[in-house]
Amino acid sequence: MQQIINFLIKNSYKLLFLLLLGVSLTLTVKSHSYHRSQYINSSNAVSGYTYNQINSVKEYFGLRQKNEDLARENARLKEILFNKKDTVLESKFTVPDILSNYTVRQAKVIKNSYSKQENFLTLDRGAFEGLRTDMAVISDRGVVGIIEKTSKNFATVISILHTKNPLNGKIKNSEHFGSITWDGKNAGYVQLIDVPKLATLKKGDTIVTGAQSAIFPENIPIGKIDRIFEEKATNKYVINIRLFNDMTSLGYVYIIENKKKKEQQALETETEKDPTKK
């Protein structure tokens, strides 16, 4: 207390000056409209700037929620489009032409490998959200992979960058198809093999998913033809495909469920085991 008293005595003139200055400024602002308006404008400018900065910070921290909301809305729109005949999905690429009986869900990639021979992704959604084994995973740009396993809240995905995970693919607009594989060398490219030499193709042609898959809808984009090789031993093409997806940078993805997959696979299995089949 003694120190406070000593401080006030030592600085009494300065404090008195500041007090009188404050009183004079207050009286000036109150008695002169011009000064009052300038004061109010200055106060509004300062408070406006402060509120703007606070709002910017709030918006920044709200971006995650906004992104999730947008991804959820995209999934809902994709489901509507996937189940509507003669509809073309208006995104960067056409996905797909005619689809039905598909359910679409959204998820976020929280882990992603792309430098191994057998690569996997982890999603932040699992069985609780309806994800199951053997569901297709795509992004806005094309094929990502297939769900391998699920827990209650997470799912792992076999990436398209996997040397032991062939997918059915075809050359768009020609109906010639083959198997999509990965040679394990470059994360930006996959290969389409077993394409007959009768197929008409050229560099730049689009490769999409084929109709033989019970997991992926037909015509989901995969990539564009980069190089074409001929296998003399098999008389077939091996095609190098540049992926539409940047598999090293994936955010939100969409999980597609074919609600008739089990029925189709059960019928095919029964047919293959039919003893009367010749």
TrEMBL record:
This protein's UniProt keywords: Cell shape
Q: Does the keyword Phosphoprotein apply?
A: no
Q: Keyword Cell division, does the record have it?
A: no
Mind telling me which InterPro entries this protein's record contains? Cell/Rod_1 (IPR042177), Cell/Rod_MreC_2 (IPR042175), MreC (IPR007221), MreC_beta-barrel_core (IPR055342)
The UniProt record lists the Rod shape-determining protein MreC beta-barrel core domain at 109-257
Q: Give the family per the record.
A: Belongs to the MreC family.
According to UniProt, the name of this protein is Cell shape-determining protein MreC
> What is the source species?
Flavobacterium bernardetii
Phylogenetic placement of the source organism: Bacteria, Pseudomonadati, Bacteroidota, Flavobacteriia, Flavobacteriales
